[in-house]
Amino acid sequence: MSFSTLKKEEEKSQSITLPVLLDGLSELVEWETFGGLLGVPIRDIDRIKAENSSIHSMVLHLLDYLVNHVKDLSWKKVIKALEKIPKEKDLAEKLSKIHLQPQVVDSPQKIISLKDKEEFALEFNGITMKFAKLVFNIKKTLKNEADFDDVLSFATTLQVISNPPPMNIRELFDCLQPHYCFIRYKILEVIVFEFIKKTMEKDMEKYREAQMNWLESTTIKEFKEAVEKAASTEAVDPSPNQCLIVLRLEGEWLKVALNNLFKLLEYLFGKESSILTRLRIKEGSVLVCLFASQSAILTLLTLSSKRYKELAFLGILSIQFGNILLSVSSLLCQCTYFTFEIVLILELILIKNMKLM
User: pLDDT, tens digit, for every residue of 166-180?
Assistant: First the structure.
């Protein structure tokens, strides 16, 4: 097969169908000007206008004409025509981002260049700075609106206060710090809800939205590299009343988005997964390191034990709770392989469980 034949086959495969074109141009208003720029004769534009009473019908018939009569119709031609119409420039920009951006085909993992690594590091710094600002505002609001003794008494019931007891909000947050991070901050949410919910509601929601966008757009591998690039100095050793939890994962987990990793944690540990903090990814197998309160370890171990037969099918070789190791049979692991389909199955399981609650 010659190069010219290959090129023709490629152009044919990329031809625009009417449903696809209608989906992209459903917001088109200046349809007459648009049609003229793409070579539609004025008599056909007048005919479409006379035979149809609504703009939607006119646009539909114009697009049908384009698909059947305009030679080599492409998104490049469509967008070029839209760019010449002042009122349609926003639509042109929107379609350009969808159809003219370079794409990586058949590759679920992003290709990471040096520039991309820099960008990930900046994004990581950005989300951690937003969290630092949120924590600062929580401290400030608690100091101004809440009674410190009440906050301390409440925090003490959460079993996170060590001796000697803190004397002010700053010292209180020093005690709380090992129990929250920019990804998991359940303990802060509980305190905010109890004392300053109304004042902090918008700030909490704003950060939650930014965090979710970041989690959905960042893979585990990108997170690992971003942390390394940012040279985070956060301690990785547990405080006296915390325990290290390590999940050893195999297969395609480095390509999975962070939000799906947290879906896995929720599947294993239920609502208790919200107390896990200070995520770290290590070399070799995908070693997911997290911290939890010593008092919660038995509950977490019990919950994950109920999923023991499913661990290998989820790409989990072992879960370690301090000195306690929950390991999957090596024979079972040899017969199973983690795939992206597992993530979809996991999501369906979660949705099913939610409906049953």
Answer: 999 988 988 888 888
